[in-house]
Design goal:
With about 270 residues, this protein is an alpha+beta fold. It is built from 9 helices and 5 strands, in the order H-H-H-H-E-E-E-E-H-H-E-H-H-H. Strands 1-2-3 form a 3-stranded antiparallel sheet. It has a two-stranded antiparallel ribbon with strand order 4-5. The longest helix has about 35 residues.
Length: about 270
């Protein structure tokens, strides 16, 4: 047989059957790995969600035990819990009114001496909530110069020192003034708003950064990171709102009810948890 000059013999392009089989196995293995990775990612997300409040609301088990209070757990008595539940049930449920017109000055010009003990409310609260305090003798022992706080919001121990670092410990309004303004305080007299802003029952010395993070949030949008204090936190908020005739939103009521259901209850005089 003659071959024309310059022509190239045809080469078969059929792949080796063994190579084709290996390729198919590789593709199947890659698909399997991708599928398994997707399943693992979904399971990981689900496990992480179980550690959150959202997981509890969805009825998921706490697989990591992350929803359990850690550190200091602030317990309540059966009577305190019953009173808080009754107060919550009696609170009006409405939508949040506009924030229009709100200004801090409507609740008084800063801290005042409403109880006429010669000291402003902020220093009264610092003396109440801090330990190992030192005071300024030139002020008759009113002004707190230093002290130590077991911060209820974080369960961390904070050192307070008056001066450049004063803001590291702040006095929080448990029911924020702006929140109160949007839920009934617009109708109050100026005198009642000043009394509310300086009521020790609505005040707590806390970590400054967490106080700023809270802002004017209610229980539906912010709770202390320290879970062991959340029950007491919403109990105090409920007590204050009931005392002043403020209302709650539906979401706020539900958030408070959830935390009250998680309270650790001890009998008066019983052992601490």
């Amino acid at each position: 047989m003659s071959v024309a000059c310059g022509s190239v013999p045809l080469v078969s392009r059929r792949r080796d059957p063994f190579a084709r089989a290996v390729g198919r196995r590789r593709r199947r293995a890659n698909r399997l790995v991708t599928t398994l990775a997707s399943i693992v990612s979904v399971l990981l997300v689900v496990v992480l969600v179980t550690a959150t409040d959202t997981g509890e609301e969805l009825g998921l088990p706490d697989l990591l035990g992350a929803r359990q209070p850690r550190g200091t757990v602030v317990a309540v008595t059966p009577q305190e819990l019953a009173d808080a539940r009754a107060a919550l049930a009696a609170l009006p449920v409405k939508g949040r009114a506009p924030r229009t017109g709100y200004d801090r000055s409507l609740f008084g010009d800063g801290w005042v001496d409403v109880d006429r003990n010669g000291c402003d409310t902020r220093n009264d609260v610092l003396r109440r909530d801090l330990v190992e305090i030192t005071t300024d003798p030139a002020t008759g022992g009113c002004v707190v110069l230093s002290g130590t706080l077991r911060d209820p919001f974080s369960d961390e121990v904070l050192a307070f020192e008056r001066g450049e670092r004063s803001a590291e410990v702040q006095v929080d309004h448990l029911v924020a003034l702006s929140d109160a303004w949007q839920k009934g305080a617009q109708e109050w007299s100026a005198q009642r708003r000043v009394a509310f802003a300086n009521d020790p029952a609505n005040l707590l010395a806390v970590d400054g950064a967490l106080n700023q993070a809270k802002g004017d949030s209610d229980a539906a949008t912010w709770l202390p990171p320290h879970r062991g204090f959340r029950c007491r936190y919403v109990l105090l908020q409920t007590t204050v709102k009931a005392a002043y005739g403020l209302w709650v939103t539906a979401a706020e009521r539900d958030a408070i009810a959830r935390e009250l259901d998680r309270c650790v209850v001890v009998e008066p005089g019983g052992p601490s948890p």
